[in-house]
């Protein structure tokens, strides 16, 4: 294949990575931005989304599209509910202290991972794609479902942006993000906001997983990579900046796709990690983050 | 009526308020004065529930506030204008007011009343709060608190760093609130402002109200100011 079509293929692969990463990292960014909690268990919420999607695909009869649509609604709800319970049972009791919550979310990570191993088993399991078609370009054919993933992620992220910038719930979240005490002093139930944000962050990771699992398969150890890449994305974009997270996700996703296609996936991870190191030295607050006042 | 009955509170191991008692009635302005670190701000933060009392009771019209979470206290009818304003700086003026209005039944009417009180805010509705001048920020901080339709308004040094015309506007606002029956607790360093607006002046020292006098009994040269404020 010539260089041009090969580059186009790499960019298309990168867009799929970017779309999934943007969804996953925006959940992590929301949780850190509003709650100041570094959620080390975020990758496990991603894994749970994929594993639950497999269960739905196995136990819901009928066409793959039906079980997939059900999984896309049900899995984020179940994972969000689990996250809200974790918030209530653990994080709230630690008064959201930054250091304590890091340790606590490491504990949640292992609990979720081992629970998945016990109930789901150690094997990778496939989930059928809801649609099966190929887009035939002059140089190569491309799996149509991957383009569906990009479009679906773009729609979900647009909806998230509308909720955050236009709705009453978004206004409450932004006020809480700016000043937790003042939000309380104006009648906002901050505990409820935190539970909702933690659930929303986990649900976004689960949604990303449901979208990508027909491409990658479900496995109980699959949370590690999304967690690492999400942290890289959030640090480069600026901690707590959703706009920065989205832009960083596109850059990292495209870089990941291009470097993986032309060279090797491992080199793509090395490039991303070096980029984080560089950003931390040159601009510690990230591309779109702000320095502490 | 808001009453604090033998309230003790503080931060971690530090006790700031010790068995403090005070009360303020509807339409009354109680001014709290004292040296830095005397506990004036802690009194307001304790009433708001942002610092939890370790003992004692806080009641609003007989209803316990000290057992409620901070957001419940705000919704019960306590409005708060903190020191340094602490606006939601990235939100617009309109959004800051909306945050205040969320707990109310008739938000549109209340918003209009606040904008009539501070017409300058109407011209800045879509501007981020952090871009306002100091005086405008203080108008917004007070307006945001008034959006809660409070029964009691807590004002922590509202005239700090403001030009005389703004201070006069704040005095007029406090007078207007008094006429509508809102009780006000004002923390203030300026003797002239305290004497101009307060019905009573309480002097805070050692975590208690050391002295409390009707403002009409005091003048700019009164001994109490020398003892507790150092002027």
Automatic annotation (TrEMBL), chain A:
Keyword Iron-sulfur set for record: no
Keywords carried by this UniProt record: Amino-acid transport, Cell membrane, Membrane, Transmembrane, Transmembrane helix, Transport
Bilayer disposition of the protein: Multi-pass membrane protein
Recorded superkingdom: Bacteria
Keyword match Transport: yes
Recorded GO MF terms: transmembrane transporter activity
Subcellular location per the Swiss-Prot or TrEMBL entry: Cell membrane
Pfam family, one: BPD_transp_2
Signal peptide: none
GO cellular component, one term: plasma membrane
GO biological process, one term: amino acid transport
Transmembrane regions: 6-25, 37-56, 68-90, 102-122, 142-164, 193-215, 227-254, 266-283
Record-stated family: Belongs to the binding-protein-dependent transport system permease family. LivHM subfamily.
Name of the featured protein: Amino acid/amide ABC transporter membrane protein 1 (HAAT family)
TrEMBL record, chain B:
PROSITE patterns linked to this entry: ABC_TRANSPORTER_1, ABC_TRANSPORTER_2
InterPro entries named in the record: AAA+_ATPase, ABC_transporter-like_ATP-bd, ABC_transporter-like_CS, BCAA_Transport_ATP-bd_LivF, P-loop_NTPase
Organism, as annotated: Albidovulum inexpectatum
Domain ABC transporter, chain residue ranges per copy: 2-231
GO MF, one annotated term: ATP binding
SUPFAM superfamilies named in the record: P-loop containing nucleoside triphosphate hydrolases (SSF52540)
Any GO BP annotation: L-amino acid transport
Pfam families: ABC_tran
Family, per entry: Belongs to the ABC transporter superfamily.
Annotated protein name in UniProt: Amino acid/amide ABC transporter ATP-binding protein 2 (HAAT family)
UniProt entry keywords in alphabetical sequence: Amino-acid transport, ATP-binding, Nucleotide-binding, Transport
